[in-house]
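User: Okay, second chain of the day. Same drill as before: sequence in, structure tokens out.
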Amino acid sequence: MLRAAHQLVDVPPVFADPLALRVVGAAAEEELRARGGLESVGLRAFVAVRSRFAEDRLADARTRGIDQYVVLGAGLDTFAFRTRPRGLRVFEVDHPATQAWKREMLSAAGIAEPKELVFTPLDFEQETLRKGLSRTSFDFTRPAFFAWLGVTPYLTPQAIAAALTEIAKSAAGSELVFDFAAPPGNSPKERMAREALSQRVAALGEPFRTVLEPAALLVQLRDLGFCRAEIEDCARLNARYFADRADGLRLRAGQLAHAWT
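Assistant: Same drill. Structure tokens below.
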């Protein structure tokens, strides 16, 4: 819904997703138009920029020969459906129930499933990533690009560590981009916003489970075997994607991690 709202109210969009409105459906689009988007401007900006950053980094990786893209916790991601990437195999990894729901949504919207896409059902709390990918045509001997967006805050620290461990063992030259929930700052407004969001997602049955401190996360990534890791914080992302916007759209919070094997 936030990606769909971004297409309606933020001009120009930081992240163009022409299928987002089709996927959420006509009733949801009507609601978004009536409300002028969703009220959470900062969260909408972050949802847009995390996808933009990941796909920008994927484009760079493809110039270096990477031809496998793994979308972890894919949800309603539309990359494979709007780009029809030639020469790139896309593996969407997600909970079986979520994946089945997505396919129903796509069918209802009249959006065909591309031949380059491999659906990979997996429960991160029950199975390893390697086991899930081993049931597909994924080539463990070749590097891959992994995007893991909107997932880690809802997993246990153990499940996050297990997945990171598996990705760190990927073929040399693989990359990973993921977002995470960092501890809120000292601003009362930021803390109130975090608490409101926490209550909202908990009421939907998906409570926040893990907060990661950025400096400690960098140490963890290097200890797991990533040869390089960086944090893209608000300042860097705002400078790269939101500079000189007339509408004032920008990040208030949110960070991304970028790591290489």
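Strands lie at 68-72, 89-94, 117-121, 145-148, 175-180, 228-232, 255-260.

User: Thanks, on to the next one.
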